[in-house]
Amino acid sequence: MNIFSGGGFHLIRSNGFVQGFVPWHNHGAVAYTSISKEHVHLLLNVSEVAVPLQDGSHIHYIEGYVLFEDGHVHYYRACSSPAISVGDGTHTHYFNFDTTEDVGHKHHVSGFGMPAPGDR
Known about the structure:
Elements lengths: L1 E5 L2 E5 L14 E5 L9 E5 L4 E2 L5 E2 L1 E5 L9 E5 L4 E2 L4 E3 L1 E5 L9 E5 L3 E2 L3
Antiparallel strand pairs: 1-2, 3-4, 5-6, 7-8, 9-10, 10-13, 11-12
């Protein structure tokens, strides 16, 4: 096992290491929902840890409630796209989903998570 330190993070190399993949990371996300019933909600989220894919990429699940607005909240659970390299040794993920229907309506949310270390 050897330890690489750089860019403000530490990567422990061991059996099963995939070049460019940093295990146990997550992404923050801040986004507004679509307008529905004349209001929007704010989404503030930190993803679950990376779920590796067979091709060397990975996904993240996000789950939670949008912030309280207009007397109610909506729940969401979604899966991100595979990693998208930003080109500077970091990557992001795209998300695109609908919230639950509450009080007779739902909202759509899409956007990108904040970049994290690793390019895959």
